[in-house]
Design goal:
Distance between the termini: 51 Å
Radius of gyration: 18 Å
Order of helices and strands: EHEHEHEHEHEHHHEHH
Number of strands: 7
Bound molecules: NADP nicotinamide-adenine-dinucleotide phosphate
Largest sheet: 7 strands, parallel
CATH class: Alpha Beta
Shape: globular
Helix content: 40-55%
Number of domains: 1
C-alpha cells in the first residue's frame, strides 16, 4: 500500500536516493532540506520538495502541518538529515559543537515530536532514524559527530519502547561508508581548524584517507544500499530494531562488539598512522 513519507536531508546523498526510490515504489514522498533547488528531480519524479532548516522548530511544525493538510496522514518519517563536525575536541568551537547537536539530535527530535501526535492518532507509523556505524564505534577527531550518533542510538531505543503501545515502530539504520557529499562537508573544515595545532598531521592523514576513499571508484558503497534497507523496513510488518549496511559497517561493528576497548583502539589508530 502506498505510504505518505517524509524524508529529511533529501537534497543529496542517502536522502535524495531514498526519496527517488520510494517514489518509484509508488509512495507519496515529501523531501525536505535547505537547498530546495537540489530537490527538483524529486518534484519531476512526482514527489514534493519542502524547505526545511531542521534547526528551525517553526519550519518543522509548518511542514508537518502542510503534509497533514494535503494527505490527511503521515505514515513514515525518515530522519536522515545530518552532517559531521570533525576536529580535535580542543580545536572545535563550542558553537560548532552545539550546531552539530542542534542538527543531528535536537533538529531530528523536533521534527519527530511534530509527527508523533499524528501517528499516535492513526495508531500506526514508522520513524526511521539514520544513525551510523559511528553510533557504535569511534575515531580520533570525531568526538562531536560520534557523540551525536551514540546519543541517537540511545534516544531511539528509548523512543521505541515508549511508542510501541501506540503501534509506532522506531527503526535505527546504521550505514557504513556511503558515497555522498558527507566527506566534502566533513574534511575541509577539519583541516582548517587543525592548521597550526598539535593535531594538524593526524587531521591531514585522516582527511587524505577520507578523500581518497570518496574519490576512488568502488571504495565506498552507493546510497542504494541504504535506500534498500529503508524500503525493507517500510515494507516489513515487524521491522527489525536495527539495520546495518555499507562499506566496513558489519566488520567494524563485529570487532567493536567482540574486542576489548584497547584492541579496538589499536585497530582504529592504525588507520591514521
Ligand atoms: P550528504 O550527501 O551530505 O546529505 C546530507 C543531507 O542533510 C543533505 O540533504 C542536507 O541538506 C541535509 N542537512 C544538513 N544540515 C541540515 C539542516 N540544518 N537542515 C536540513 N537539512 C540538513 O550526506 P549523507 O551521507 O547522505 O548523510 C545522510 C545521513 O547519513 C546523515 O545523518 C549522516 O550522518 C548519515 N551517515 C552517512 C554516512 C556516509 O558514509 N555517507 C555514514 C553513516 C551515516 P541541505 O544542505 O540542502 O539542507
Amino acid at each position: 500500500m502506498s505510504k505518505v513519507i517524509l524524508v529529511t536531508g533529501a537534497s543529496s546523498g542517502i536522502g535524495k536516493y531514498t526519496a527517488l526510490q520510494l517514489i518509484r515504489e509508488g509512495h507519496i514522498v515529501y523531501g525536505a532540506a535547505r537547498r530546495t533547488e537540489k530537490m527538483q528531480d524529486i518534484v519531476s519524479a512526482g514527489g514534493h520538495a519542502l524547505a526545511l532548516d531542521i534547526t528551525d522548530a517553526e519550519q518543522a511544525k509548518a511542514i508537518v502541518r502542510q503534509i497533514i493538510d494535503a494527505e490527511g496522514r503521515i505514515d513514515v518519517l525518515f530522519n536522515n538529515a545530518g552532517y559531521a563536525v570533525y576536529g580535535a575536541v580542543e580545536t572545535v568551537s563550542m558553537a560548532d559543537a552545539q550546531k552539530q547537536f542542534d542538527v543531528n539530535i535536537f533538529g531530528l527530535a523536533n521534527i519527530t515530536k511534530e509527527v508523533i501526535p499524528y501517528m499516535r492518532q492513526q495508531k500506526r507509523g514508522k520513524i526511521i532514524n539514520t544513525s551510523s556505524m559511528g553510533g557504535k564505534i569511534y575515531t580520533p577527531l570525531g568526538a562531536w559527530y560520534h557523540a551525536t550518533k551514540h546519543a541517537l542510538e540511545g534516544w531511539s531505543d528509548c523512543l521505541r519502547l515508549e511508542l510501541k503501545p501506540f503501534g509506532i515502530d522506531v527503526v535505527i539504520i546504521e550505514p557504513g561508508g556511503i558515497k555522498t557529499e558527507f566527506g566534502d562537508v566533513m574534511y575541509e573544515p577539519m583541516v582548517e581548524r587543525s592548521k597550526g595545532t598539535p593535531y594538524e598531521s593526524m587531521s591531514n592523514l585522516l582527511s587524505k584517507a577520507t578523500k581518497d576513499m570518496y574519490d576512488k571508484e568502488g571504495a565506498l558503497s552507493p546510497p542504494k544500499v541504504i535506500a534498500d534497507l529503508v524500503s525493507k523496513a517500510i515494507r516489513a510488518k515487524k521491522p527489525k530494531t536495527r539495520y546495518v549496511a555499507g562499506k566496513f559497517a558489519k566488520p567494524m561493528l563485529f570487532m567493536r562488539k567482540w574486542l576489548g576497548d584497547r584492541a579496538f583502539d589499536k585497530i582504529i589508530m592504525n588507520q591514521v598512522k
